[in-house]
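Reviewer comment 2.1 asked that we show a complete input and output for one of the modelled complexes. We chose the zinc ion case, as it is the one discussed in the main text.
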Amino acid sequence: MKCYNHPEKDGVAICQACGRVLCHECVRETDAGIACRGECTESLRAEKKLQTELGFHLQNVKRSARLSSFFSIGMGILFILFSNMGFGLVYNFVLLLGIGFTLYGSVALLVNMIIFLKQQKRSKRYI
Ligand SMILES: [Zn+2]
Ligand SMILES: [Zn+2]
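Response of the prediction step:
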């Protein structure tokens, strides 16, 4: 393959932004990857920055969702344990509350995991 800008020169790399073949003179290695000089470098950097920010954001969302699920399950178990300490309407209510929390936490955790697996599949397809 020859350089997109210099048909007489051999290409050494491919721009990750526009996909053109580049020679030594045209190629530019950036912190975000290999790009043409100028515009492509900028767009590659911007894209990388966006991806990184999005990744961080997604990780935060996932982590907090998982934490709140565990919290709900923990609360549920506590309520269930507490309801075992006695009988009566109040304890029945607490038991129901505990079961509700545990179920909610489990379902939320499951949904969280399914979304995570789907995302992993999707990102693999891009690679
Ligand atoms: Zn380019
Ligand atoms: Zn060139």
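Residues 63 and 78 are 22 Å apart (CA to CA). We note this here for comparison with the apo prediction described in Section 3.2.
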